[in-house]
Amino acid sequence: PTYSVITANSYNLSERLMRYQDFQEMEYTAEIAAAMDIYADETVAQDDKGRVLHVYSDDEKIRDILEDLFYNIINVEFNLRSWARNLVKYGDFFLYNDVSPTQGVIHAFPIPVNEIEREENYDREDPFAVRYRWSTLGNRTLENWEVTHFRLLGNDMFLPYGSSLIEPARRIWRQLILLEDAMLVYRIVRAPERRVFYIDVGNLPKMKAEQYLREIMQKYKNKLVYDATTGEIRDDRRYQTM
What we know:
Blueprint: H1 13-26, H2 30-43, H3 60-73, H4 76-90, E1 92-100, E2 104-111, E3 116-120, E4 130-134, E5 140-143, E6 147-151, H5 170-194, H6 206-221, E7 222-227, E8 232-237
Helix pairs in contact: 2-4
């Protein structure tokens, strides 16, 4: 029998992709990018022995196999920093495990978060069964052991996916973008009006009207102020604001 797939998340795929799109654009804000860099650097900071990861096991063979996996095959010293940063950025990070029946994991490479979906509750006989669907690869179904899913849990709204560390700043960031766009539109619309100033000269003849205009211009450009240090009166430049 076939069963419909029921995911535990309370939001649909389009909303999830919209969140990922916002996170990509938020990275262009210097303060947000610097914060994610700090998180990633602290996550993979080396200890006094110059290592970012230690393997402990009473079995020497297991320890050697894991050391070879993490340092030679996966190369955590080079890859872990970028993986941690993507995890901080999106709240999720997916690795595809290239597994050989005889050699085990021979390679692991990242899968873009917007190209893969996590499916749960599709097997009534196994409520903990998990599988993945790679949408851009012909909607291919991947077993749980083929994918390593890192996720930052803590917000049930986004289950079964993680919650980005920059999610709380998303609303403020969108407000900032709207304000910047509004200011840009305002300056473009009002720019022609700011280039012309109308001065009422009444019934003054042409020569006196021109002299009156020069006086008005000078009045707005300069301002007589008293200098307390020297006791003199000087002209103080007063540049026009927007």
